[in-house]
Amino acid sequence: MSQLLQNTLYLLTPKLSVYRDGLALRIEQDRQLKLSLPIHNCESLLVFGPDIYVSPAAMRLCWENGASVCYFTEWGRLEARVEGIPQGSVHLRRIQHAAASDLVRTAEIARSFIAGKIHNTRWLLNRSARDAAETADAGALRSVSDILIRLLRQLPATADTDAARGIEGQAAALHFEVFGKHLRPQVRQKFPVDGRNRRPPRDTVNCVLSFLYALLRHDCVSALTATGLDPFVGYLHADRSGRESLALDLMEEFRPWAERQAITLLNRGELGSKDFAFREGGAVELTEAARKTLVGTYQTRKREETAHPLFKEKVRYGQLPFIQARVLARALREKTEYIPHLFT
Amino acid sequence: MFLLITYDVSMTDEKAGARRLRRVAKACTSYGTRVQKSVFEMQLGQTEWVALRARLLDEIDPARDSLRVYFIDQTSKTRIEHFGAGRPANLVEDTLAL
């Protein structure tokens, strides 16, 4: 089934039930039909919160048709994923694992992911700098963008993966130092940002980012699994049990795209103080309404079209992780350089 | 491809007619969205269409029932207007968040 004909189903309201009806998923609330979704139109089913029932028959229908069922906490942390046994080729996985044991090759691929991330972070910075109302903010954003280009130039000369990771860390730290400057002055006053923090996020901006990253991470895992790669064995991210390192690698180049969405939502006032719950101990959580807003924006952005720089073809943003997963598989097979997606 | 499927299933022979009607409807709900009682819209790939077509032709009684399929191209698809109750979801273009 073509990617273009598939959609992601997000279930965010407690007490929903999902049943199987023929070859379709039937979503009910209080025994009332809310939606009937044929399985061939469903790429994955994302369940938020513990109070949503997915029947065993519905789950089976999903895995038989290559759709995954993923369970998230209310604030977007992935807790479980149900999917069929992957059909991907063992041969590709062997190549992937062999490359991960080869220190030189690992460093090469890790550098590509980092280059993609830094380039795309600059894309984000320059865009915000253009739109900034105050020249001081624009200047701060531009100066980070200029340092990033220097880091980008240092990257090919790095000795090994650790040195490359060091550059990535510097770039990320610099970006988060000025992250608040992406926001309009009045928005920034209401939602101050102080670097990146998580588990749990301790300010509203980080809270929004965490949720969007979770959606993105899920899409990267799906894309890699569909391509036949092992999402757990990565290059930039070292092996850690239970961590989808390759998905995190692939995600790096798309992070600025998700960050852009968070910035736009906050700047336009589509997310306000009422959308967040402040817990004791400093954790910040999203309300159900806010999660719906975020999912809505994310899905809309996935449907927007862009010209692919490499293939000179119109693609949807939502297809990009799938395209990049295939680009990666090819680079691994042919032992060539991985070319990340560069936003323009 | 985007399809519109409509059908008439004859109910003169009540029991057999009801059975065919039920089974045709089930086949259609498996692949698309019910937009009116016996009208379905669906967004299919080639594989799904081949399977659904075979299934529908298997169910209907060609002497009594009729089945019409409209193949709608992408530009005409955006020119569908809906008035009144029961606006169906667009399963591919809408954000499916409940």
From TrEMBL, chain A:
A single GO BP term for this record reads:
defense response to virus
* Taxonomic lineage: Bacteria, Pseudomonadati, Verrucomicrobiota, Opitutia, Opitutales
Keyword annotations from UniProtKB, A to Z: Antiviral defense, DNA-binding, Endonuclease, Hydrolase, Magnesium, Manganese, Metal-binding, Nuclease
The entry's protein name is: CRISPR-associated endonuclease Cas1
- Provide the family line: Belongs to the CRISPR-associated endonuclease Cas1 family.
Subunit record text? Homodimer, forms a heterotetramer with a Cas2 homodimer.
Q: Name one GO molecular function term.
A: DNA binding
Domain of life according to the entry: Bacteria
Quote the EC number. 3.1.-.-
Question: Which cofactors?
Answer: Mg(2+); Mn(2+)
Keyword DNA-binding found: yes
TrEMBL record, chain B:
Q: Name one GO biological process term.
A: defense response to virus
Q: Which intervals of the chain form a coiled coil?
A: none
Give the matching Gene3D superfamilies: 3.30.70.240
Task: Please list the residues that bind Mg(2+).
Answer: 8
Any Pfam family the entry gives: CRISPR_Cas2
Give the superkingdom in one word.
Bacteria
Q: Supply the EC number(s).
A: 3.1.-.-
Q: Tell me the SUPFAM superfamilies matching this sequence.
A: TTP0101/SSO1404-like
One annotated GO molecular function is: metal ion binding
Keywords in alphabetical order, please: Antiviral defense, Endonuclease, Hydrolase, Magnesium, Metal-binding, Nuclease
Cofactor(s) the protein requires to work:
Mg(2+)
Q: What family is reported?
A: Belongs to the CRISPR-associated endoribonuclease Cas2 protein family.
What protein is this chain from?
CRISPR-associated endoribonuclease Cas2
Organism per entry: Termitidicoccus mucosus
